[in-house]
Amino acid sequence: MNYKEYNHHFPKRFINCTQKENRVHFSCLDNAGNPIAFDVSFFQKSIMKFSLYKKVFQLPRYSILNQMALKAEQIHLKESEGRVLITCGKNTLEISKDPFGLRVMDEDGRLICESNMHDVNSVGEGKDLIPPIGYSTDESGKTVSVNIGMKLHYDEHIYGLGEHFTPFDKVGQKIRMENVDTLGCRDHTGYKNIPFYISSYFYGLYINHTGIFDFDIGTSSNATLAVQVPDTSAEFYIIADNKVKNIISTYTELTGPAKLPPKWSFGLWYSTGFKGNSRANTQADALKFREEKIPCDVMHFDCYWLRDNMWCDFVWDEMQYPNYKEMLAGLKKQRYKICLWINPFITVVSDMYKQGKESGYFVNDQEGNVYTADLWHGLLPYCAIVDFTNPEACLWFQEKISKIILDGADILKTDFGEDIPYDSVFYNGMTGKEMRNVYSALYNKAVFETLEKYKGIKNTLVWARSGCAGMQRFPVCWSGDPNSSYEGMAGTLRAGLSMALSGVPFWSHDMGGFYGNVSEEVFIRWSQFGLFTSHSRLHGTTTRQPWAYGDKTLKILKKYVRLRYELMPYIWKTAHQCAEWGEPFIRPLIYENDNDPNVLTIYDQYYFGRSMIIAPVFGGNGAKRKVYLPKGEWVDWFSGTHYNGSKWYEITCPIEYMPIFRKADDDIETGEVNEFIIEE
């Protein structure tokens, strides 16, 4: 949105305020002398809710909130000649009267956040004003956006906003809340966009809106973090606390809570292959894992379990997988869980398309006909889109899922769900542009609840690519399709740590990368890293057989897989903590050390749970990397060498070694290594 094309309305002078319990209504005059108003409500756990609107406040069609998390908090309001102070818990909201200003301070008077009301050029005419808190209209007077403009301090760092592959610190970036197929995981676009960020000034800001808009983090002006929500009203939440982990936990509860995946899902997942896979290949691989004593819990079948061009009609390709039910039963006897790939786009050449078209189960175009499009970038025939806003269509899709679950599937990989065409029309009357982000939530919810019906809550998860705020309710997700390179690996880690600060505890990625020719060294290094994220899956367009890369690779991967299974008591304990407290499984160093200036921009190492630090290696045999160890005493997992914290170390890394450190004072429980997870 071009700032110069619109008229911006924002509070200029305070008139009065009225309090009703934990809610305060503010009346002001705007910059043109017209009335403008907003509300602030106060809740426990340092939550402030701001409701902005022109005339009448209206929540978006899909409000992603856990109302149980909003417990009213007592407030104390004090008005003086020049300002209004509202104290709530440890924090104070200050409203200055003339000129208007908004700021939040902690109990010691330290500034946490503030609005930026007058960010203009040096001439000061205001024609290129960065929109402050308020709303904007076009030339006809129609409201086109509700605006939020927070001051971006010179030493401030911003994190979160979902899964993006750009630098971990988002200052200097413009992040668009628009779910797209990123086609390579190499830029600012994302499958999972979450309108929540956290600041190094110790506040988090969540916008309860599923529309498409930008977070301009110091690009139009280095002094403002600006957002323009395309609606006539908007609601945003500020969570202010002196600990980063408390802010993340509160946000996760506000949009969640997070659910705990089953214990067996924390074992190794193996993708049976891409194009050309068969029953014989799958059975041979399953047997090889057991013969090599490489622990493994999940056999995943990607898109080629389906017939060519029939995706996704849920019909097995029996040419490649004859008597597939017998095959699945045999895999289950070997104690493997079964994961099947699915997506919500149905090719026009399938019988399922004919069924859905006749019943009105697909998204329509502007004329009321089924909307079909090239949603596979030329790789498949045109597709229709299942309309999850239509209850009957949702049940129809769930019936299709039920059949493959009864046939033997334990998990479904919910691929795609992005790139909903803007001009499509849904059953609920909303356009594709309005549904673009929230579609992922409806899709994953439909699949998750179907699995839960047959498997029970303790055995239910999805493996999702697309997502939005609140996606922690339907775990787990993976990072999509990165290139098989160190650059792809580094971008993936940055994305994972951004997700960790976006309220998503359980996250994974394709070990070895998804596309491109993976080298032996990249495969080893990526697998070492991947075996120390919440979930671990070997997958890509080329083989991910550990034994396909030579004896050295097989030996190294076996060592790290077995180490993961040895650590399963610690992993399972961590998983419970993540679900109970809203903690991320892997967490950037700032999460545990938010007062240490050394960690503010570190993106290439992380905590694995509360007691371990992992430092992935982005180079081959003998690569050197610098590792920062926070305060305390740390022990190298492999050598037993002790290190003092609050220091940097340069470490030489043979190909079989990835730096793993544990807190010297913490007891990390380990257990017996089995071929699969022993279920309780």
Question: What structural category characterises the helix and strand content?
Answer: alpha+beta
Radius of gyration: 26 Å
Write the CATH fold name of the domain at 265-460: TIM Barrel
Helix content: 10-25%
In the CATH hierarchy, the architecture of the domain at 265-460 is Alpha-Beta Barrel
CATH class of the domain at 265-460: Alpha Beta
**What's the N-to-C terminus distance?**
54 Å
Strand share of the residues?
25-35%
Tell me the name of the CATH homologous superfamily of the domain at 265-460.
Answer: Glycosidases
Q: Largest sheet, described in full?
A: 8 strands, antiparallel
In short:
With 680 residues, this protein is an alpha+beta fold. Among the domains are: 3-151 and 203-240, Immunoglobulin-like (Sandwich), CATH 2.60.40; 265-460, Glycosidases (TIM Barrel), CATH 3.20.20.80.
Question: Could you describe the 3D structure shown?
Answer:
It is a single chain. With about 675 residues, this protein is α+β, with helices and mostly antiparallel strands. Among the domains are: about 190 residues, Immunoglobulin-like, CATH 2.60.40; about 200 residues, Glycosidases (TIM Barrel, Alpha-Beta Barrel). It contains twelve helices and 38 strands. The chain has an eight-stranded antiparallel beta sheet. It has a six-stranded antiparallel beta sheet with strand order 1-11-12-18-17-14, with no helix packed on it. Helix 5 packs across helix 7. The protein is globular. The model has no long low-confidence stretch (mean pLDDT about 95).
